[in-house]
Each structure stands twice: as structure tokens, then as C-alpha cells.
């Protein structure tokens, strides 16, 4: 395909995407397919000779759309959001055409420096302490491939720091005694990061709002020190996946400082809302953290992957993540200014020019535009909560503080599981469940910008309709 | 931005990309900027109110192009290739509009199943043993976020397996004795993966072709067992980054089997060429490996990230990488067919719908089209080699078996470093150096499909011109 042919096919694709988004309301929010459905639909090996673009295009509806969860549908309320916006897509189109990896400054100078600037822009939007800014001192931020990567980088860097402190012991001897903490409501990726780092992790009890409190953490640390263990790492969550609970950072932070533990704050979803002054208090105490992470690809309209990750002192993560190879060595990075080589900030060497889409989105939305979107989602969640509260058969499971509403029938788990299964079968909306302290409930999330007030009402009508059928049967 | 506005802006971007690729020859292959250049060019915080698309578009040349390494330029011969093609870009455009993450089957059924099919298609193109195919038994493949991730997943899975074997010891006691092997010419990511996994790694000597041989590995294992260490993992390279050396898999494989070591084959670049029958012998012995990886984003015209990774037995990697969370549990994956939940194959939960661009590329190029591209690159490398050999001032450093030519002036390292610096200053071509056994040399790689025979001649003229100046000064 030469450039002129791309002009034609690319325009085709822009039109297909436009039409797709124009008609998104008419598509099933999740597909009616069973595992294995695809094998009958496509050949079992690649063609030897190339096919035309028209052939491929003709298969999009038959193959792709038929089996797709429509995360862009206004009726998709599952999980937590994954963002996508047209400005971000434009940025990714250009990045995909240029493919210039900012693994080192020399391999893509503008990719590196735009990432430096965008991480500082976003840090300012969040009112992060100066230490987290490139322009503020020893800290800075980068785009990680995922929040899982962010947590993993935090924990292995904390591990490196503590192993260094025990010079008289082997790494294995230290490792056998290390203990990390998070809450029982934390995301599965925290436990996964600990597994990968080969360290034990305790998932601590939360309060009646599903939040981790300082007293609980302090007691666990005391208990473990008595056992001869070495507490070294805490992952606090601002906005848990199940209920959007906010751990109490103001209590947890000072304890981490006093006990010399590395505090990582996982604020992937709710942290995005902290660009609004009224929600910023959620991360009060962030100055006690060593590393901090939000996912702009959740609620700031930037396509994934875009996990923003900051550290107070670059050296703390660069040292455990650096390897030197001649073919990577810097050629020209010197005239008094030092720019980061982002390969030393994470696992990957080749990495996308991800700052481009951030730049597009921050400029085309503006801070105000992003704030308004968040406020609109919050308001719609409140609308949904009011609808639930007005129906005495239902109850709200957790405070509604974000775009997420957790609710259930005032009945047993089996009844709620049955209700979910009936809603699923209707295929009119897509929601997902969770379970906390043995209680099974349904989660309704404002997941996508296509959702409007009328869709909230529609979703509630679907749920009520299925509840009517269930309770009268 | 509503869909209709995207129709306009998206078409704008398609035109910009087309014009960019149409004029790529006229752009400097790498930019004339110094670290810190960007700070003067853009504001130091995000705008409060949104800007127009036209504003952003007007900054593309001034800001982005000014500081970009032009990896798409026919005169870019640095590192190893990172692929980009129009068919892949079309796939990424659509994936970016839909944003549907195949972290689990239920979160994106077609994304999951198309990945299953594409990994099988590619395995067949490479003539991998049946065990690596989903349709062949217990194995299968997935897209990793990078080759670094692939190696990391391999080593931590091998680590989990061996820790399980020593049930009478703590994990720390086992860890302190674990030893992994690779060659001194292996990619830096192998050493990095070992660091992250907290295991020791020995970088073994290579033969006169920079390849790891069986006898060297066997001797190291014997030596380490005598010391009481526990050998557990070998990473062999098919196509090293410095010289594209091919480790001898046929020798290494049987040793790994006999000694019960996990063999991972890192074939990121040269492995792509194994879709051509004439290069397939490079991976003879692959049946001895437990995990195997190539980067289609290097030489199969698929935009990054696309690191293909296969394992003989899914359980070997799923067990150490699985965590269970209610909000991730499978709802409907059951009617006799089991499809993978790819979140259990790697670090990331949210992951791109990467199979789409593979499907586009495999269909629109066809196997034959991809083979012909590789053969063309090989032929151009041979042309360049002939030019070097015809100039008695130069020597070839390693056998030219791929698109990479390693060469140097028959002089000392300082002279070659000086030559590189002069070539850099000319800014007419971009090449990068490496060093093996203390010898500094220059690397010329056919990196991008825009490069033609005349560009090879041009590059050699630039190099000769600078060499003339250097040697006459």
C-alpha cells in the first residue's frame, strides 16, 4: 500500500469510524456469542497472496462487530471506564505513522521531552507537590504500559531499596522476611505485583466505607515487626475497583513516613477527578507517598495505554531498572540539561510516543473541558442513585462519590446473581458485579462519554423490568 | 469533538500522514536539537479552555517534526527496525476507536479469539512445533507489551517452577542459589529481566561468530552445579542486537532438556525471517524450548507493540501470573470450548486489541508479500556489504545474514568513533554503533520499507565521504 492508496483507505476508515460512533446506540452493548465462535468465521491459516482492502473491510461487521463488547456504547456500564476520544485517536494516528520510540532521549527527543512536559502539566492539574515535577527537583513522571506496571515498578523499587539496607544478609534472607500491605479491596494487580516481586502481601481489613484506615495499618506493622518480619511497602487506593472507596491517605501517609515504608498510591480511576478542586482532598497526604499513579486512560479521555506514574526521586526507580548497553548509550545529551531516558523508568525499551495524544487531549479539551466531563459523570451517577433509592426493593451498597453506583436487591446473594443473569440475557445494558465481605452486588458505572441522562433512565428501566419478572416469579 | 467533526479532522490527519510519508525523503533522518529544546516551544501548563484542531495541527511541524528521529526515513539505519505499515495503521485506527480490552474473554470475545487465531496463523508461518499452537495441544501464544515483557514472563515462570520443586526450602533460600544463562551478546533486556526477577545471570562467552555454543553452556552448568548453585533458565538469542548472531539452538536445546532447564528463545528480529523456508533452519531445535518469542513489530510490518510469545504449556505461565478477582470472573465462557483469559499470560490487565492489526497485515500482505519484503532487505544488506568489501580501508565485523551489516575502518576504536561522530554531524544518514569484545564498530541496518537500493548507495557515499575527510586530515 503506497501513500496515495492510504489516502483512500485511511479516509475510508475515518468514515467507517465516524459511522460506527454515529450508530453506536443501535448496537448490542455486548455480543451474543459463545466461546469458540470465531473459528468457523475465518480461515485457519494466513493467505499466501495478499488480499484487497475491500475484502478486509467487508469482514469488519461480519467478524469484528459480531463478537465485540461495545465499550463505546452508552449502555455499557461494566467494570471501570476505559477512555477513548477523537483528539486522542488523532494523536495515536500520527504516532502510529511515525513510530519513533522514546526509549532514550536520542531515539526520540521530542517524544521524550513532550512526555516530560505532559507529566508536569498533569501534575500541576492535580496539584501534586513540587517534588513530583521535573521542573520541581529530583522527581518526575512517565507513562507506564499499565497501572499493573506502575504498581510493579513501585514494589520492585521499594524491594531494591530495602535489600540494600540489609547489607549483611543475602537478598533471599531479606526477601523471606519482607511484608507489603494493601487493603482487602485493592485491585488484583497489587497482589499480582507482589507475587511477581516474590514478596508477601497482607490485604488488610477496611472500615464500613471499604477504606483502609491508619490504625489498621499501624496495628499490622506492629504485629509483623514482633514476628521479625520487615514491613517495607504500602499500596493505598484512591478509588477501589469494586466500590470506589478512598483509603485514608492523611492517616496512612504519616505512618509510612514514621516507619520508613514506601507508600505507593494507586489512584487510577478516582485520581483523575482530582483535577477538580472539589475532589482534590481525596489525595490529601500525597506528599507522604514515594510514588503515585493515575490512569488518564480511565477518566481523562486519553486512549490506552496511558498510565501516569510519578516518583519523588528518579534515582529510586532508575537504579533497579537500569542496564547499560552500548547500542543504547546516549550520544548527544549534554549541554547542562539532562533529559530522562525513559527506558530506565520501566520494563519496556521500545515504547509508544504516548505524550502526543496527551498533548492533543489537554489542548483540545482544556482543563475546564476535562473537569466538566467528570462533573457530568458524577451528576449522572447521582441521578442513578436517586432512582435506586426511590425503589424500596433495592439498596445502595457504598457511598456514591464518583461515576460508580453499587447497589443490590434487598435479598440474598443468589437472588442478586439471578437478577444479573437476567439483565445479561436481555443484552440491553452491560453491567458487572462484585463482592465485598461476602455480599454480592451489582455495579453501574458511567463508563463512556456517549452516555446521557436518558441512558441512565433507560438502564434503570431495564433493571426494574428484570427485577419485576424475578420477584413475581 | 463529535463524530462529524472527526470525519473532517480525521480526514485532515489521513492527508497529513499521506503527505508526511510522501515527503519523508526530504526530512533530516535525525533532528538538530539539544536536550531541553522543547521547553521554550510550548507553555508550561495546560490551557484552561480548549483549543481548536487547527491550532494543534499548526504546531505539528514546528514542535513535533522539529524534534523527531525520523524512523520512517529511507536514510534511517540505526538500532534494529521498528515496523510500521499502512494496513497495521488502519487496524490500530479502528482498535483505537473501539477500545475494547481483551484482558478476559468476556471483556472482548472477538479480541481474544482473533488473538488466538493470529498466534496460530503466525506459528504456522514459522513452522513452530504443534505444541505451541492452541489448535495443537496445551500450548498457545499471545501478544506481550514488549520483548522485555516476554523475557520477564519466561524467567519468572521458570522461577516459579523451580521454587515449587524445592518444597523443603524457603523461596529466599532457593532464590539465593538460582542461576540463569545467556550470552554476552544477548539483549540488555535479558539481564534486566533477571534483575527484576532477582536472580543471578551469567553472560557466557560466544564463539568467533558471536554465537553461544552448547559446550560453553554445558561447562558453565557443570561448574555452577559444583558450587551448589541451581541452574534453571537459559535465554538463547536468534539474531543478537549488535551483530545478528544466531545462537546454536540445536546444541543448546538438548542440553536444556537433559539438565531440566527452561529454554527461552529470544528471536525478536531474525526470528521474523523464519517465515521464509530458507531461513527457518535458524530455529532448528525450537522444539526444545519452553517459550519462544519474536517481534512482528520489528520485521513483519506490524506496528508496535506486537511481541509474539508462545509457550508449550499454558499452565506454566498462567499459574504464576493469575490472581482472581470477582469483578474479573468469567460469566459465560463454557460450552465445552475454553478460551484463554489473556490477563493470565502477562503483567497487564487492560491491553490493546492487538490482533486486529495482525489480521489486517497478514491478509493484505499475504505470507508471500511478507517473505518478499524480508528477502528484499536481505539483498540490500548484501549490496551494502559488497560496497564495504570493495573499499580496502574498511572491514566487515560479522557475517551478514540479515538486514544488518556491521563494519569498521581498519583502525583503532578512536578512529571509528570519530568517523561516527562526523557521519552524525552530517545529518544525512542515521546509524548507531556497538561494541563486541572491546571492538567498536558501526551498524548499518535496513530498517524501513522506504529504503531502496539507491539509498544504500547514498549511505555508502556519505560514509566514504566522511572517511575521506577523516583519513586525509
TrEMBL record, chains A, B:
One of its GO terms (cellular component) is cytoplasm. GO terms for molecular function: aromatic-L-amino-acid decarboxylase activity; pyridoxal phosphate binding. InterPro entries: Aromatic_deC (IPR010977), PyrdxlP-dep_de-COase (IPR002129), PyrdxlP-dep_Trfase (IPR015424), PyrdxlP-dep_Trfase_major (IPR015421), PyrdxlP-dep_Trfase_small (IPR015422). Pfam families: Pyridoxal_deC. Its EC number is 4.1.1.28. Gene3D superfamilies: Aspartate Aminotransferase, domain 1 (3.90.1150.10), dopa decarboxylase, N-terminal domain (1.20.1340.10), Type I PLP-dependent aspartate aminotransferase-like (Major domain) (3.40.640.10). Keywords: Catecholamine biosynthesis, Decarboxylase, Lyase, Pyridoxal phosphate. The modification N6-(pyridoxal phosphate)lysine is found at residue 298. One of its GO terms (biological process) is carboxylic acid metabolic process. The keyword Lyase applies. It is an enzyme of class 4 (lyase). It comes from the Eukaryota. Its cofactor is pyridoxal 5'-phosphate. Belongs to the group II decarboxylase family. Homodimer. This is Aromatic-L-amino-acid decarboxylase. It comes from Plakobranchus ocellatus. The lineage of its organism: Eukaryota, Metazoa, Spiralia, Lophotrochozoa, Mollusca.
